[in-house]
Design a protein that fits this description.
It is a single chain. This protein is an alpha+beta fold. Helices cover about 25% and strands about 35% of the residues. It is built from three helices and six strands; from the N terminus they run αβββββαβα. The two termini are about 30 Å apart. Pfam families: PAC4 (PF16093). InterPro entries: PAC4 (IPR032157).
Length: about 120
């Protein structure tokens, strides 16, 4: 049996990276498209400081979300994962490793993610 017959090609993990200078800071984005969802890492340094997961619920219009790793007082990864799940209807893992020095930064980061989703919907 070859790979195409087993269905492994359609289930392959694909990777998409992009960067943007936002508020004088270079922000890197790393997307791994998974079967039925995606993992998104956002940061300026190669650190995995937190990890949140979100998924749709048949019992509530708001997606379920939980923090798997990191400081529970930082709600940014949870909130972002929920909004991305609501937008894509997919299971979403988010690691948001940027300092919370400017409240506008997270808004601009999310705007940049949405722009990338519009330009490259096949990567998410």
């Amino acid at each position: 049996m070859n790979i195409a017959e087993s269905g492994a090609v359609g289930d392959a993990i694909t990777v998409h990276d992009f960067s943007e200078k936002i508020l004088e800071q270079t922000v890197h984005f790393h997307v791994m498209k998974l079967n039925g969802g995606f993992f998104l890492w956002v940061g300026s340094k190669p650190v995995l400081s937190n990890l949140a997961v979100s998924m749709d619920s048949k019992f509530d219009s708001m997606p379920l979300s939980t923090l798997v790793l990191g400081d529970s007082s930082d709600t940014t990864p949870n909130s972002l994962a929920q909004r991305l799940t609501k937008r894509t209807k997919k299971q979403v893992y988010v690691s948001y490793s940027l300092p919370m020095t400017d409240s506008n930064l997270s808004l601009l980061v999310e705007k940049r993610i949405k722009k990338e989703m519009e330009v490259h919907p096949d990567k998410f």
